[in-house]
Input
Amino acid sequence: MHLFDLMEKILGADNGEAAIEIPEENFNLLMLKIIRDKARRENKTVRFTAAGPRGKRLVGSLENRIEPAAEREEGERAAKPIKPRGRFRKILVPLALVLGILIVLGAAAFGALYYLPKAEVVLTLSPIPLIKEIPVAVDAEVEEVDAATGTVPGTSQVVEESGTKSTPATGTAIVGEKAKGTITLDTTGEQTCSQGAKIKENASGSVFLADAAFTIPAFDTYDAAVTAEKIGTSHNLAAGKSFTVLSGCSAAVVGTNAAAFTGGSSEEVTVTSSSDQSKLLTDLQKELVEKAKETIKSRSGTDEVVVDAAIKIEVVEKTYSHAIGEQAESVSLDLKVKLTTVTYKGADIQELISQTLSSLIPSGYTLFPGETQIDPLDPVLKGSKLTFQAEVSAQVIPEIDKEKIKNDLAGRNAGSAQDYLISLGEVAAFELVLWPNLPESLQRVPRNTNRITVVLKTEE
Amino acid sequence: MKFKLPSFGKKEEFPDQFFGLDPGGKDLKVFVLSRADGHTIVLGSRKLGRTGVLADDGLSLKESVDHLRQDFPEAEPLVVVGISGPLSLAFTTVVRSSTSRDIEDLVSHARQEAQRSAEEELQVSLGEPRLKVSEVEAEILEVKESEKLEVFLFTSFAAEPYLAEISQLVKPTGLKLWGFSSLLFNLVSELSKVEELNALILDVGGAKTEVGLVFGGELMDTKSFWWDFKENGNPTAFLDLWLEALSTTLSAFEGVETFPPKIYLTGGAAVFPGLIEVAASYPWSRDHHFEIAPEVVPFEADRLSTSLGQVALRLRKEGEEKAEPETEEPGTGPEFDEEEKKP
Output
């Protein structure tokens, strides 16, 4: 039967108990565990039966009754013991039962006393602050930490990331249509006017341009088609206005419009601005750098250190959806960047610092683990090498032999344990927590040193 | 420093064009692979459904192989067979010793221990206390020498009846069975060329699912169970239960503090409708410790099978190293390779 069907059987068990028969073929111990876990998740009991010897053995293995092949046959033979008979059996059985119970109770009491109690000792130490700047060279060409030259092994990382981001456009522009109309021009002598001749309406100052070149015969009029120089409704002039030619005709010409000018319009619209584009580029670049850092960490492990200021960013592709000044509600950017840097393992730099600082640590003291802060200052990336000044802020604490303290404390009562901890000269303060929380006269530090935890911390 | 075992034990030069076989539970996939410039490419392939009768499958396979041999007459009639699933095991063992110990002795001891441990694990896992297990391949991935000597040894094993069955399958084709190789190991080798791989690889086959745990580009361990991917009236429940089975499988990996942040999906049934979506949205971090919610990345359907080409690349490299003894580091023996230092 398929594993899916067996798991479904558990789901369908109405009375909270499912009987599962283990098939002989295509079945393994992991599948048995999968079924057991499913039953646990569903709060149901599962009763395994086996279709054959393999299934029996798998169920046995699940219940931690694994028997090696060589011993199995003996085991099977031993499964049929000779039973004691008669009166002897009547005495032997109760006696064995009582003895068994006593042994079990004794073992349980011993186990409880030995394994259950636990103690946590928190020792507060007075640290000596240590601040130093160390020149560090991270080199992708080397493989080992070298304290003499301040070199740690690095990894050249080249990551290409691409992404898209959009932002609402924030620029504005006025767009619209130009007004059109006809001006009747009047002159005494023949006049020639070029296309684009400028004609001004006298009262408003609106300027119009001739749509085409034309000639006005002497002592005659000419209806010239014109278009406003600029967009907007202000050029939609009423009929009967007076015009004067500013330029483009051979002599001064005047005119009027018999009909109103129409078609002029204007409106404010949103367009892409240069700041929209530069903001998009900055923000997306920042996101891609973060993405690249995650890529590096997933590739090299979470201990890999990436120095932000030492990432060289090269834009490979950059495409905006709209050019600057183009009408758009939003603008987007497709960006592909190539990031180059050299990274290093946190553990390697810790090792370099431990080695470098070791000569500065007084005898009887040690570097407090976990409290070392390293800031890479002025990083410079050149080829496969990254150099910087590592500003190291560390704490130095008295050397504490945790194992000795555990051994010395084991089995002491609460008072004696406290006296011992007070006697430790290098400890500024201590805290002793004993479990179970019995009255003080009954409290003891466990004899089993594995049940004692010693935690070091430094003063705030 | 990398040390190559004579893992495939073959002295003759490996050909440039050869056959690869992925004997899945539901389908047999056979490929003609070609090696050139440090890569392998697929020249041709055939996929055929299994009938469940070994002799019939062998004859169908023969027909497919005959077609491929007609299409690619230059391909050597030599086949490398990929192994995977509950009848096999693949894992990396880290062996530590004092630096004075001879590496070959250490490796020999480690291989024996790996064999013993694999045999015991498969015997218990399959409920077959007399099951015999064969070493399929062994390769030293890395040797670190500082205060202690550390050897990272990859080994794969398979139940002997399983290997015998595949040999029977190949027999009618007329191809020479060159050897077996762990499919997941080959995929990891291929992927590790472009990134230092930290990932879970799910090989979702038609009849079984295998999970490979990869740290630092090394296949640390595999776990498998049988699961038939077939049309189901309730696909949501079907995939939910499969995911629960996977979750228990992750729990079976011992000593893993944090699972890697990527899950690669491969195998013929990875394209089962809805599977990629449910795997991507499954709350993996609920029952297991992941630093971040893992990214689920599907591979193209034949990626796992065609990664068998890596066998040829490894062998060619091995051959080249043996052909240039003057470049070897003095005192490290003829099989050391300084050029393959891990980055």
